[in-house]
Write a structure and sequence with these properties.
This protein is α/β, with parallel strands linked by helices. It is built from 11 helices and 14 strands. The chain has a 7-stranded mixed sheet, with helices on both faces. A 5-stranded mixed sheet has the order 8-7-9-6-10. It has a two-stranded antiparallel sheet with strand order 13-14.
C-alpha cells in the first residue's frame, strides 16, 4: 500500500512539473510575440499613410541629390502640375533631387505648413501669412499672385437681396471648386451667417464660372455667385448684382528665401506663369508676377492690387 501511494505521489509530481514547463514555455512565447508585435507597431508610421493621399513627388535629373523642394497648394491639380514642371526645370535640378507637392483644402492645412515653415513654396492668403509673421520669421517672399476682386450674387431679373427670407426657395448656382472664394467659399459663409442649414438651400453646382453664367442665362438658376467681368454686360444687367464681399485679396505664391536664391526665385516664377496659362478658370489664367528677372538678377516690382 505504501509503495502504491509513493508511486502515485511521484506520478502526480511529474505531471505537475511537466505542466508547469508547458505553462512557462507558453508565457515565454506570449512575451516574445508581444515584443515583436511592439517592434512591428512602432515601425508602421514609416509608411506615412496620410501623406500618400495628400502629396505627390517626382525626381529631377539630379537623382543623387538628397535635397527636396517642398510645395504646398490648396489644389491637388496645381500641386501635381507645378511639381512636374519644376522637376523638368534645369535650375531646380541644379539644386534639388526631388520635388514634393502637398495639397490641402482646409485653411488649417496651410496653417500647419506656414506656421512651421515646412514649405519652400506655398500658395496662401496674405492674411494667414501676416498672422504668422511668416515673411519675417521664415523670409517668405511673394513671387506671384492673382488680382484682388469683389464677389457678387448675380441675377438675371432683379437685384439679389442678402437675407434669409429672400434666398429661401431660390435656385442658386455655385461653383463645385472648394478653393474658389467667389463661387464657393464666400457664398457658403454668407448662407451660414444667415442661419441656413445644408438641406434648406436649392443649390446647383457648376464646373466653371462660364457654366454658372450659362445656367443663369438659360433660367436654370435664379442667382449665381461669381465675380463680374466686362463681357457680362452683354448677358446681364449690372443693376442686378449685389456684392457679397468687397475687395477680396487674391491668393499669393510665396517662396522661402532664407538664402538669396535668385535663380530659384526666377525659375519658380516662370513655371507658375506657365502653369497659370493651363488653368480651366479664367481668373487663375492671369497670374501677376512680382519680379523682373534678367541676366543681372531680379528686381522686385511690387504686388499689384486691382479692384
Amino acid at each position: 500500500m505504501g509503495v502504491l501511494l509513493g508511486d502515485s505521489f511521484l506520478n502526480l509530481k511529474n505531471y505537475i512539473n511537466r505542466n508547469i514547463s508547458y505553462v512557462i514555455c507558453f508565457c515565454i512565447l506570449l512575451i516574445v510575440t508581444w515584443i515583436l508585435g511592439g517592434v512591428s507597431t512602432e515601425q508602421k508610421p514609416l509608411a506615412f499613410p496620410v501623406l500618400i493621399n495628400t502629396s505627390m513627388q517626382c525626381l529631377t535629373s539630379a537623382k543623387g541629390n538628397k535635397d527636396q523642394l517642398i510645395i504646398f497648394t490648396p489644389s491637388k491639380q496645381d500641386a501635381n502640375s507645378l511639381s512636374l514642371k519644376l522637376c523638368e526645370d534645369a535650375t531646380v535640378a541644379r539644386q534639388f533631387g526631388k520635388v514634393v507637392g502637398y495639397w490641402g483644402y482646409k485653411p488649417a492645412d496651410s496653417v500647419e505648413f506656414i506656421g512651421k515653415g515646412i514649405a519652400d513654396l506655398i500658395m496662401a492668403k496674405n492674411n494667414i501669412m501676416d498672422a504668422f509673421t511668416a515673411e519675417f520669421t521664415y523670409n517668405y517672399q511673394p513671387v506671384a499672385g492673382f488680382a484682388d476682386y469683389t464677389a457678387f450674387f448675380i441675377s438675371a431679373k432683379e437685384k439679389p437681396q442678402i437675407n434669409k427670407q429672400y434666398l429661401l426657395g431660390k435656385k442658386i448656382g455655385l461653383l463645385d471648386y472648394p478653393t474658389s472664394r467667389s463661387g464657393h467659399i464666400l457664398p457658403k459663409q454668407t448662407f451660414k451667417k444667415l442661419g441656413f442649414s445644408a438641406d434648406e438651400l436649392n443649390i446647383t453646382y457648376a464646373s466653371s464660372h462660364d457654366e454658372l453664367r450659362t445656367l443663369l442665362a438659360n433660367g436654370e438658376v435664379d442667382i449665381i455667385s461669381s465675380y463680374w467681368k466686362d463681357s457680362d454686360n452683354a448677358l446681364f444687367s449690372k443693376n442686378y448684382i449685389t456684392p457679397i464681399n468687397r475687395q477680396v485679396t487674391g491668393t499669393r505664391w510665396y517662396l522661402k528665401m532664407q538664402q538669396n536664391n535668385i535663380d530659384l526665385l526666377c525659375a519658380v516664377q516662370k513655371n507658375i506663369q506657365a502653369m497659370s496659362k493651363e488653368q480651366p478658370l479664367h481668373y487663375y489664367q492671369n497670374v501677376q508676377t512680382y519680379w523682373q528677372c534678367n541676366e543681372q538678377g531680379a528686381e522686385f516690382l511690387g504686388e499689384v492690387h486691382n479692384d
